[in-house]
TrEMBL record:
Organism: Euplotes harpa
Keywords: Cytoplasm, Nucleus, Repeat
Residues passing through the membrane, by range: none
Name of this protein: MI domain-containing protein
GO cellular component: cytoplasm
Primary localisation category: cytoplasm
Domain named MI: residues: 1-91, 131-239
UniProt similarity note: Belongs to the PDCD4 family.
């Protein structure tokens, strides 16, 4: 009998290995689910434990949140259990930001359209989320200087990381909020986001998640916050 402890321990053992090993674990879980008819409950218990104990492992595995969210998204994509788990996941503390990050990241992976291109090869990503964040910061700084939407489009497209574009949106919003840029520069931000959405590089859901996460990170974006809110609402309506 395959029990939750076997599934969760196989995931935990893979966290200090490479992507090849993590891919093998995902495939093993898929085959076990198919061969033994593992139930929703078995996988739910598995991921409840992995989410609830995230703080116990994060010191030793800095990318624990990223890895578990990827395992979760892959398991749902492979049909081991369904996406309703994300809505009903049992957590010890709903205010725990890391527990929520796992669920939100998994949801973001699964929201891609089409999802196959990334989720089929989720463990073959050539760049870590941390490195992607550094790239985003570099690109945002360059855009602040040249306001070249087409150049930004090409740079983001070349990264091949649509699953993480919500983080780009968040960093873009926070950059201008913290720098307290003038209204003209806010217009450049809106113009860029609209360009990315209209050219199908950025989805509306990724845009909304990014803005929401930015507002969650800081209580007050800037003295122009009310105006920004109105502009973002207008952009959402137009997109």
């Amino acid at each position: 009998i395959v029990r939750p402890w076997f599934l969760r321990n196989s995931i935990l053992l893979s966290l200090d290995r490479g992507n090849v090993e993590r891919e093998k674990i995902s495939q093993l879980h898929k085959e076990l689910a198919k061969e033994f008819g593992l139930t929703f409950v078995v996988f739910s218990f598995t991921y409840d434990f992995l989410i609830q104990t995230c703080h116990d492992y994060m010191l030793d595995v800095p990318h624990y949140v990223d890895f578990i969210s990827m395992f979760l998204a892959k398991a749902i994509y492979d049909g081991c259990f369904n996406a309703m788990y994300i809505l009903h996941a049992e957590t010890f503390d709903s205010s725990d930001s890391n527990q929520l990050k796992i669920l939100k990241a998994a949801c973001s992976y699964l929201s891609l359209d089409p999802s196959d291109d990334h989720l089929k090869n989720i463990w073959e990503s050539a760049i870590s989320n941390e490195a992607l964040g550094e790239k985003f910061n570099e690109y945002i700084q360059a855009y602040n200087e040249n306001q070249n939407e087409a150049e930004m489009f090409n740079k983001l497209k070349d990264l091949e990381c649509p699953f993480y574009f919500h983080e780009f949106v968040k960093r873009l919003v926070l950059f201008y909020a913290k720098e307290e840029q003038d209204d003209g520069n806010y217009e450049h931000v809106l113009k860029l986001l609209k360009y990315l959405v209209s050219n199908l590089l950025l989805t509306k859901s990724q845009f909304e998640v990014g803005v929401k996460n930015a507002r969650h990170d800081i209580a007050v974006l800037s003295q122009s916050d009310q105006k920004i809110s109105q502009e973002f609402k207008k952009l959402q309506d137009e997109c």
